[in-house]
What does this fold into?
Amino acid sequence: MSVLICGSLAFDTITNFPGRFAQQILPDQIHILNVSFLVPTLKREFGGCAGNIAYTLQQLGGSPVVLAAIGPDGAPYLERMRGWGADVGHIRVIDDSYTAQAIIITDGDNNQITAFHPGAMQYAHLSKVPARDDIRLAIVAPDGRDAMIQHAEQLAAAKIPFIFDPGQGLPMFDGAELRRFIELATWVAVNDYEGQMLAERTGLSLEAISRSHLKGLIVTLGAQGCDVWEQGARTHVPGVVAEAVLDPTGCGDAFRGALLHGLKQGWDLARCVRLGNQVGAIKIAHRGPQNHVVPKALLAQA
It folds into this structure.
């Protein structure tokens, strides 16, 4: 079985600010904000939600099929993904646009400020969900607005169960659009902040959202673990202590790669989430979103 991953491919420029944003940003001066952060470290990484999710899923033995758009500068990314054995046959190259770029500043408390240039991602809707019998599971991760809407509709029409993962793209949608995504999806995955925004915009509590046709609503809580909502009942799955906390970039995507692996195996959601928490703890101990390695011992359990 192959897993379709609809989302962004991007280059991440990751920097670290050794101080705290809260000490540099004056709340009563936001209206005239003019700040500069000295970032002594800088690294360029392969990123984007689709690439990050595919990276972890591939390590767990999955067969990711990536549906995304890149610019001509994305050739090294395609080469890298082919090296994993990922299916890149549905990645569209937009000749007159750059591959999406994220510039991320992480402070000493692991808070992040991100500037994002969508580039070729804005044309991801030009590619449709492929008609392939081997695709039995999917995720709609942050991508171009039109792509997220169209791919969700196409997956539902093809009767392919999928996770709706709005991520940082959630503010692009109003309440009616978010309710439509929920109607089409099989599962919804958000972090705690996104969960609050989802509830506010839809006018539905997390409990109410989970009492729908959904098979589950997953709310990640960082180091505290994850809440799994199923038909109005909340189950808390504790977090896993990381060996080191170096870089949170891509932790949510690593979690979702593990979540997809578990769903593909037919596991219950709590077991899927336990694996996700373990993989997230492994990822945060490595810099960059695609440099962690899933240990053989964990692979054996998975």
Summary: The mean pLDDT is 94. The CA atoms of residues 8 and 207 lie 30 Å apart. The chain has one domain: 2-30+39-301.
